[in-house]
Amino acid sequence: MIVFYAGLFLLMLALFLFWQSGRTQKAAGLPGGRVIYTDTHAWGKVEKPLYDSGLGLTGKPDYLVEKNGRYIPVEVKSGHAPQAPYDSHIYQLASYCLLVEKTMGSRPPYGIIHYEDRDFAIDYTQELEDALLDILAEMRRDERREAVNRSHESGARCAKCGFREVCEQKL
Ligand code: SF4
């Protein structure tokens, strides 16, 4: 049952982040990301999801890289790299950094978002962690609300959305 609720929480987190993705990086003070070159041979597959009962949060980064005794989560995205990583991708990676710290006992200095043609390192700063924790708290508040309103006016976004069939606010 715990796994069910954890899975549900992650699903809702994904939905919430999608809703919130209209927020600008500047507004949230997110790090923009540094382009880096990585050796994919050093990436290790993650077998089991990471889970923290205190946060009620679970998630599985695509890979972990060990560097100087610390673990760096890697999130793989299909498609070409945008000019800068999307906020939703940064928050997803930040949630993996948080889970790595909680479950493995050491804080990743950064995480990696891997697009087809470029990798970005995202510094896991205290500001990013605080912004993520704010979102998680806001999401928990929204869980108790009857309805959460759409935060954008983009028909194109709704057209590609996986929740389109069940969403009452689709454009
Ligand atoms: S269909 Fe549109 S409004 Fe509904 S969740 Fe998806 S993106 Fe948001």
Question: What is the gist of this entry?
Answer:
With 171 residues, the chain is α+β, with helices and mostly antiparallel strands. The chain contains five helices and eight strands. A six-stranded mixed β-sheet has the order 1-8-7-6-5-2.
Structure characterization notes:
The protein has 171 residues and is of the alpha+beta class. The protein has one domain (2-159). It is 37% helix and 19% strand. It contains five helices and eight strands; from the N terminus they run ααββββββαββαα. It has helices at residues 2-20, 25-28, 87-104, 126-143, 155-159; strands at residues 34-36, 44-45, 50-52, 57-59, 63-67, 70-76, 110-114, 119-123. The strands form two sheets. It has a six-stranded mixed β-sheet with strand order 1-8-7-6-5-2. The chain is globular, with a radius of gyration of 16 Å. 22% of the residues are buried. The model is unreliable at 1-5 (pLDDT under 50). The structure holds iron/sulfur cluster (SF4). Iron/sulfur cluster is lined by residues 19, 150, 157-158, 161, 163-164, 167, 169-170.
Total domains:
1
Please state how the strands of the largest beta sheet are arranged side by side.
1-8-7-6-5-2
Order of helices and strands: HHEEEEEEHEEHH
Structural class: alpha+beta
Question: Which properties best describe this structure?
Answer:
171 residues, six-stranded mixed β-sheet, two-stranded antiparallel sheet, 5 helices, disordered N terminus
List the helices and strands and how they pair.
Elements: H1 2-20, H2 25-28, E1 34-36, E2 44-45, E3 50-52, E4 57-59, E5 63-67, E6 70-76, H3 87-104, E7 110-114, E8 119-123, H4 126-143, H5 155-159
Helix pairs in contact: 1-3
This protein binds iron/sulfur cluster.
Iron/sulfur cluster is lined by residues 19, 150, 157-158, 161, 163-164, 167, 169-170.
